[in-house]
């Protein structure tokens, strides 16, 4: 199977997931620091969704670290479909 840049279990994938995680954390920090953010329901939902994005990205970054450390191949069709559906959601 051809090696794609940013695919799960590669250094590129780890860098992309770490970036995704850090940007989600930064956006949560910026939104929470806004004056009166709790007064707007949509803003609270956006913060909650970014929290889920942060957890998803962190979990997949940990999985990438494990795959790199143990030299596992994560290019399994079932795992790839799980990543696609999770990222799409």
Automatic annotation (TrEMBL):
Membrane topology note: Multi-pass membrane protein
Major site of localization recorded for this protein: membrane
Localization terms from the record: Cell membrane
Stretches assigned to the Casparian strip membrane protein domain: 7-88
InterPro entries referenced in this protein's UniProt entry, alphabetically: CASP_dom, CASPL-5
Membrane-traversing stretches: 21-40, 46-68
Highest taxon above the source species: Eukaryota
Record's keyword terms, sorted: Cell membrane, Membrane, Transmembrane, Transmembrane helix
Gene Ontology, cellular component aspect: plasma membrane
Record PANTHER family: CASP-LIKE PROTEIN 5B2, CASP-LIKE PROTEIN 5B3
Complexes and interactors: Homodimer and heterodimers.
Stated family: Belongs to the Casparian strip membrane proteins (CASP) family.
Listed name of the protein: CASP-like protein
């Amino acid at each position: 199977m051809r090696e794609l840049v940013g695919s799960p279990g590669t250094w590129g994938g780890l860098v992309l997931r770490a970036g995704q995680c850090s940007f989600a954390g930064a956006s949560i920090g910026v939104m929470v620091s806004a004056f009166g953010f709790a007064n707007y329901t949509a803003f609270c939902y956006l913060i909650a969704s970014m929290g889920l994005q942060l957890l998803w990205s962190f979990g997949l970054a940990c999985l990438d670290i494990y795959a790199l450390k143990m030299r596992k191949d994560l290019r399994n069709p079932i795992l790839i479909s799980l990543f696609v559906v999770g990222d799409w959601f």
